[in-house]
Amino acid sequence: MTPIEWFYAKGDKHSGPVNSVELKRLATAGEIKPDDLVWREGMAEWTVARNVRGLFEEDAKPANTGAGAPPKLIDPVPMPAAAPTPTVVATTVPMAQRSTRTTRHLFDLFLDFVRSQFTAAFVESTTRLFVAAGKFGLFAAMAFIVLFSLLVAMKTHEFTLLLGGIAFLPILAVLQYVGVRFCDALDRLNRNTSANISSTAFLDCFALLNIAGGAAILIGSLAAAIPEKEFWKIILGLAGFVVSEYIAFIALNPGTININLVPDARAGEEALGLISFLVKSLLKLVPVIFGAFAVVGSLLLLYASVEGFAGSGPLVAMSIAMNAGAALLVSAALPFVAYLVFLMIYLGLDVLRAILVIPSKLDNLQNREAKSPGETA
């Protein structure tokens, strides 16, 4: 199902798209007022936000403007990629109807800024970029394996190494196919499985901690690498920074992993929702690791080729090539392993979810039994 997305306008500023969860959060936080304009596919023109069903807590009926019946409340439908430019009409709303905005913490403003810059579209495009990097990185690795094997064979005059490198190509080709296919399968699983939480408090705090942790990892790697001139530590720090920030962006855009905001979710449902968020966010991270390891493995093979032919010699080159092969194997096998692990975890979550709904079903059954004598009398 196509995610529900909206565009909204405040004065002359046109923003979006955002999903329904984010639109509700903006309205609750006072970022969107009842008289601001919103639009989605299927609407002939922009309308004031108060006309969107359930967007504001008071859920008041639209006021009659004096010209016929009040406008019909809007139900959400899927959005296209672009929206028409709104014609902003000045409206006068009584002060009593305007939402009062409470003082917000500095971190709230910071998270709003990060969320506006790194949207759900950014997360999805980044995921697709890393999948493409993994796909073509493994193709490049096949070519670099042949190059490495040929150069080392020429250097050592042992041409059996060339045959060994060529023999590894079919294995890597199959693993490349498996990795790409299961990245797509993981994305479908993430979209087809949903969970509910009652508040974005955990997600916002989790995002803030990851943003701060990623910055600390990067700064710490620089502090450790520069004095000792071990610059490979910077690469590790940069990788940790990218992973932490990417998880933070997922937490700020929970719609990318089909996490829904349901204010009246019960405690058990909230617990399952948070567990689902942690599992699904790691699942969303798998394509990033797939692409990153494929590129790193390819570059290590290219470096090993240079070292083997004109650098420190075949032994050092073989050691580097072994590390490259390990990175490539992890890259290609990880999506398949993550797919199986996710299915097992979600099977357990579905069992727990079924157990949690038993009390409510029993209550409904008792209520029907209590009403049945009076109905038959």
Mind explaining what this structure looks like?
This protein has 377 residues and is an alpha+beta fold. The protein has 2 domains: 1-62 and 72-79, Dna Ligase, domain 1, CATH 3.30.1490; 116-361, no CATH class. Helix content is 65%, strand content 6%. The protein is built from 9 helices and 6 strands; from the N terminus they run ββαββαααβααβααα. It has helices spanning 20-28, 106-117, 120-156, 160-192, 201-228, 232-252, 267-310, 314-356, 358-376, and strands spanning 5-10, 13-19, 37-39, 47-48, 195-197, 259-261. The protein has a 4-stranded antiparallel sheet. A two-stranded parallel ribbon has the order 5-6. Strand 1 (5-10) and strand 2 form a beta hairpin. Helix 3 (120-156) packs antiparallel against helix 4. The longest helix is centred in the C-terminal third of the chain and has 44 residues, at 267-310. The protein is elongated, with a radius of gyration of 27 Å. The relative contact order is 0.10. The model is unreliable at 59-73 and 75-101 (pLDDT under 50).
